[in-house]
Structures are given as C-alpha cells and as structure tokens.
Here is the input.
Amino acid sequence: MSLEYTSAEMMTVTAARALENGTTCFVGIGLPSEAANLARLTHAPDVVLIYESGTLQTKPDVLPLSIGDGELCETALTTVSVPEMFRYWLQGGKVDVGFLGTAQIDRYCNLNTTLIGDYTAPKVRLPGGGGAPEIATNAGEVFITLKHSKRTFVDQVDFVTTLGFGRDGKGRDGVPNIGKGPTRVITDLCVMKPDPETRELVVVSLHPGVTAEQVQEATGWEIRFAEQLETTAEPSEKELEVLRELKARTERHHSGE
Amino acid sequence: MAEFLSLHDAVARHVEDGDTVAMEGFTHLIPFAAGHEIIRQGRRDLTLIRMTPDLIYDQLIGAGCAKSLIFSWGGNPGVGSLHRLRDAVEKGWPHKVEILEHSHAAMACAYEAGAAGLPLAVLRGYIGSDLPKVNDQIKFIECPFSGERLAAVPSIRPDVSVVHAQKADRKGNVLVEGIIGVQKEAVLAARRSIVTVEEIVDDLEATPNACVIPGWAIDAIAVAEKGAYPSYAHGYYPRHNRFYKEWDAIARDRDSFNVWLEENVYNAGGAS
Here is the structure.
C-alpha cells in the first residue's frame, strides 16, 4: 500500500536523493536547503554542506530561515569569511554540487532571480543574483529544484542572472575552467535532465500519478519527454518521517522568536 | 586610534551627506542601531553599499537617506521582498534610487581588494550572466599569463564603513565572532570607520587566530547594546526571526512604514 504524501514532499525527497553521500554541496536557501539537509539526515550522513555565509561542513538541527542563521555557524566545522568562501572554497574548485532554486528557468536552464519585465522599468523586482552566478559556473555540477508552473518555466527568461547553457544552449562551449552546469532539475511534478547534445531540458521521470499532459500544461514551451520515461520512486516511510520531523522542529524554532 | 564616542557623536562626526557608506554584517551583526542613528540625523544622498541590503537598508531607503544602492542580493531573507527598496526602484518613492547590482562573489572580492589597497578585484565570475549588460562597473580582462578571460570589478573604497561586533577592549581593539562576513574587509577598505559593540571589556580573551580588528585601524567605537537587533549577535542574543516576518507587512505599505519609523526610530531617542 502506498503512503500518503504531498507533491511538495515528493519534490523534496526526490531532490534529496540526488545528493550522494560524501558529496560537497554548496547550498542555496529554501527548497535546496531543505532537500540537502534531508539527504544528510537519511542516506547521506557524510554529505558536506556549505552555505555562502561562510559556514563550512554545517549540520543544522533546524532549517535556517536565512542564509546566515546562527544555527549554521554553531553546527559548522568552521566558519570562514565570505571572501574566503567564494574565493578559496567555491572558485578554488572544492565544491562538487551547487544546489539552487530560482524564480524563472528556461529550456536551457538559464535562471532569472533579478526581475520580471524590463530592467529599467521592472514589473516585479526580485532579490537579484546573490551567490548563484558563480555557484553555477564554479561548482562541478548544478542541481536545481523549484515548483513547476507556467510562471516559473518560461520560454525565455526575462533576464539571465545565472548561466545554465545560454540562450542557444552553447553558453559553456569552449569556456575554460567552468563546471558541467545543470545536470538535473527536480520539481513537484517530474525530474528533467539536459539533452547531452542540445542541452535542452528533457523530462526523464514523472512523479507517481503525474501525467505528461500535466507537465506540459505547467511548462511555458513545448517540453520534450524521454523515450524511456520513468516513474519516480515514491518517498519511503523513513524519508517522510524524517522530513516531517525536520519541518516541525523548524516551525517550532522559528515561531518562538 | 579608535576614539570612544556615543553613537550620536560617532555618526555626527563621521557620516556626512553624500558619503559612500558601507554598513556590513552578513545576516549576522547587522548594525541596525547605527542605521537608525543615521536616519535620525537626517543624512541625505548617501551611496549605500551592502551585499544584502536587508531590513536596515530597506529602512534607510524608505526614510529617504539614499541616492543609490550597490548590492548583490536584495531580499528579506526567508520571507520575500524588501518593499521599501522595491517601491523606490519601481515607483520612485520617496524618491528614485539608482541601483548597481553585482553577485556576492564580486562584492566579496571587491571589499577584499579595497582592504588590500588595489584598484580592482579579479574573479572567475559573471560568465554568461546578463549582469554585465546592466552594470558598467563589470568588465572583463585577459589574464596576462594564461590568456583566460576573467571578470574585473572596481574595489570598494567607502568613505565610511560601519559594522557591529561583540566587544571591544579599553584600547578599542575589536573582536568579531561567528559569521564574520566581510566586516574586517569593509573596515580596512574605508577611509573612516565606526564600530558599534555590545560591550567594552578588560580582556577580549581572543584565541590566536580570532578575527580581531586593532583599535588603531578604527576611527570610532560606540557602545550599542542590542545594536544588531533584530539581526543577532552570536553569543549575546538570537535573530528575531518573527520580526523579519512582521516586517513584510509593515514595509508593504507606505503609511504603516512611516508610523513604524516614527515610533521606533525618530521617537526612540538614541543616546546623545
């Protein structure tokens, strides 16, 4: 008998499974942080989590609300300055995986977290690049996780804050000392991977109960599906239990002060 | 040599209209008390620099202190938008604020270059990003040794930097602990510097490799108890996460923001 779970839980568990034990991961705040910590608390106890606030090899008991919560520092192996974090640890090539969220993504995994509309007269001003532009190019590879909708999966991002594979899919070709870029995108509906040749996103796995039509309906371009389309494995009882406990702990912690 | 001043006098002496001001603290140790003092003293036309503008610059921008903003991530961490920043950028209230945006890596490198007395910072950054198209302070250079194309940004050299720290000793030496961000770099890169501290102690009890800024590299020390609130001071008080959430509603509306400003900044005295 299958377990009861939400599509958000399905997304987090699938994103967590992408992280292998022993990987060094530069973690973005929000969904990536939730997934990376779930991985650490389940199948990947030795995953090394790094946050841009300078906290190296951190093991937070509750999820941080901000990238610089005290919890991250108190549970870290060590905390370095922000210039050291970006220069030595990220640019120096010590990070296997950058784990990012985004506001908009296109078929070539370019990410927009800057604004909706025109730069000089924005309709909606978003927070901006933060660490993402260099995480995406200096990490060995990049995982992206976000909710699937026509607002987020757009034909053309309004602004390329962070490189996926460029507007034509060739943005990394011939560039020295650059990471592989995005290797998988995990949403609440499916898992996608870039085509090895064209770099265009291809749906490789549908979450249980999700149809190809639903994915197409939530995507702003005609999305491709793999010939061997798989069904994503359901969350296990253990994964759901650990995730729910983590979220409940986090909620209690942040509602106090 | 660091001079011990009241927060009022430190700001009055070292922060002038039209200055380029960096108030740093990466989520941790954000110098809110000093920011409020700048608002109370009615400084205008400031060029504000901060990697993460956070609530502190949302407040300064909403209060009309800023002419322009240089930043790399302008959100309310874990909550959403900075509504006063957005209102200024999108609608020009209380007046238009020019923005110049970078990535974190570039700003961190630019502070470090400023502290190192260099004119520019070089990094492997901005590859494939549209940011160089909208920020003319981002250029690309060729490495003279390898030929690799690298990004270059001007170093950050503020007129004045303001940071908050846990403690200073009686000679004005300052200990910063926890998430140290770019505070040391910001102080060393600036022409003048103000450090607010939770307390003055006889002995910093610093370990050999601790982040200590010598008193002779600082201009003014001012005691500001809970001076980083609602951000936090490692070892003193936690981040007031609930206030960060409440700020969303306060800042969303111009009137409620003005009421908050009146009650919590203009009428909150501040030591003179």
Q: What stands out?
A: Chain B has a mean pLDDT of 97.
